[in-house]
Amino acid sequence: MRKLFLTLFGAVLAFATPVSAQTAQGAAMSKPKILIAYYSYSGNTAAVARAIQAQTGGDLYEIRSDHTYPDAYRPMTEQAKQEISSGFRPAMTGGAVDVASYDVVFIGSPNWWGTVAPHIHSFLESVDLSGKRVIPFVTHGGGGVQNTARDLTAACKGCVVEQNGWAGYGAGTAGLADWVAGLKL
Ligand SMILES: Cc1cc2nc3c(=O)[nH]c(=O)nc-3n(C[C@H](O)[C@H](O)[C@H](O)COP(=O)(O)O)c2cc1C
Questions:
Q1: How much is the pLDDT for 25?
Q2: What angle do CA 9, 11, 16 make, to 5 degrees?
Q3: Residues 19 and 51 in one domain
Q4: Residue 21: which domain range?
């Protein structure tokens, strides 16, 4: 009888756990695993990636390549322009990342001629992000988002790409904290 009473008492206690505590437990259990993948040529996008990392606690992954560009700015931009129009895909050298274990993937790129850098396509073609929440962030030199988010969305097959990504001038991060908070990760 005593045993039955204790069992029943335990069951009542279990069901009596406050809703707020249950919600907190659920939120802790469902905290998404976050990856911040980015390509950066001159450091701006890398700086924004680090700021996102600092706020979200996600893992950073730099999309790297041995592919080179001329030192001089104009020839560099001309080469990039030609590569974009020809669909060139630089080989990646940064090692593999196990994207399957992540729920949310930020993808960062500089705005190159109104679109994402070719390195982003190399990355997207090397991973399966289908079904994942993908959040773009771009840095630019005054042109804003242009076609970067649209082109990334088209290239990310089966992904759920947020359309309210980050588009910031250079390495600036003013407003970034509010933007990340608004994503409700
Ligand atoms: C090849 C090339 C093309 C660019 N095209 C644009 C552009 O179309 N619009 C724009 O606003 N900025 C453009 N920029 C400026 C970069 O988007 C900007 O400096 C960016 O923050 C650089 O990021 P990073 O330092 O991570 O490489 C271009 C820069 C380069 C090198």
A1: 52
A2: 95
A3: no
A4: 1-31
